[in-house]
Amino acid sequence: MKLYRLEPQEDKDKDAGLAPVLQEMERPEPGPDEVLIKVQAASLNYRDLLMRKGQSGSGGGGSIIPLSDGAGVVEAVGKDVSRFKEGDRVAGCFFCGWDDGPFDMKYHKAALGGSLDGMLAEYVTLPEVGVVEAPPHLSAEEAACLPCAGLTAWTALFERAQLKPGETVLALGTGGVSIFALQFAVAAAAKVIITSSKDEKLHRARELGADYGINYRTHPEWDREVWTQTEKRGVEHILEVGGPGTFPRSLNSIAAGGNLALIGVLTGKGAPDSSLFPLVTRCVNLHGIYVGHRAAFSRMNAFLEEHEIHPVIDRTFEFEDAPAAYEYLESGQHFGKVVIRVG
Ligand SMILES: NC(=O)c1ccc[n+]([C@@H]2O[C@H](COP(=O)([O-])OP(=O)(O)OC[C@H]3O[C@@H](n4cnc5c(N)ncnc54)[C@H](OP(=O)(O)O)[C@@H]3O)[C@@H](O)[C@H]2O)c1
User: The domain 161-288 is classified under which CATH number: 3.30.1120.10, 2.60.120.200, 3.40.50.720, 1.10.10.10?
Assistant: First the structure.
């Protein structure tokens, strides 16, 4: 079978320390508690760019099969497997073994495409605790968008917070996590304010149901607009994917008693240059989000099915063009998800 592994680049001066290299190996056999999945599609996340640079927290040492996110069909199951059978349509879980309940650091060592081999392969074996049924209304390409970006947005809005109709969600940028947040919020009858560097992306977000869009390049003080749009109340939910470069303005945008989900590092991993006092005086609920567990994944899938939500796929690349898919994601042209067709 064919697969990619992240390998050191020959040109050591290049910024990207590792590169996805196409390889061949024997098809794996499932162990007693494992399922063998014929992967049909995989999707990229910003994390995969960090992993390629050797900069992510969960592994990234190279020679791993990359990508946390993939979906396909069960080809065979081990003798102790009870949840799945041959022919089931499934997706892998980001954390292999975080079934439910609170996070434990041991799961950090079981992240696909990081500390463990990931999904950019024609076949993978996963323990059945690391697999979920794919929503029946989704294609494999669509299901492959869910494990990281989809579940992160879901966890922030519905597991750690309880988004209610009429509340306002602020999504930063139009990447994978933010567009899932937009879709979930619209389905939950919440309002959405979204930012982007490009007016045409804001237009697309409005078509998906966003109530208000702010170009953060032409309006660098976007928090003032959020304040105006919410009649100086602020928003009840923020998916903070930006990190230190956006955190101070997110803090200015949060409503009293609001939920600030710390998710991303798009502007770096350093500390924000901002007083943290508003967190106290506004009684803000600060949530550190790390994707989510399998039980939440199943609840998200039920919600996707109930509301007939289809993940927004910007572009799909063929398996042999996987390196180009990385470059495309890195260019920032995308709106929503970038997918690689595998099978
Ligand atoms: N904690 C977790 O569990 C978790 C899970 C998933 C992702 N993440 C993190 O969340 C972040 C987003 O991930 P992703 O996969 O959704 O990324 P992505 O699909 O690559 O999206 C990146 C988008 O973010 C926007 N952006 C970039 N800089 C921005 C800024 N200064 N202000 C506002 N928006 C900005 C851009 O949108 P426009 O082109 O519209 O400007 C860009 O296209 C990453 O840092 C990732 O590591 C964390």
Answer: 3.40.50.720
Residue to substitute in 177, 241, 287 for testing ligand 1 pocket (most ligand atoms within 8 angstroms of CB): 241
Query: pLDDT tens digits, residue range 38-72?
Result: 999 999 999 999 999 886 655 545 689 999 999 99
Q: pTM of the predicted model, to two decimals?
A: 0.97
| Pairwise CA distance, residues 21 & 319, whole Å | 11
DSSP 32-82: TTEEEEEEEEEEE-HHHHHHHTT--SS---SSSPP-SEEEEEEEEE-TT--
Regarding the beta carbon of 114 and ligand 1, being less than 6 Å apart is answered no
Q: Are 157 and 184 in contact (CB under 8 A)?
A: yes
Instruction: Please tell me whether residue 226 adopts helix, strand or coil conformation.
Output: helix
Dist. CA 152 → ligand 1 center (Å): 12
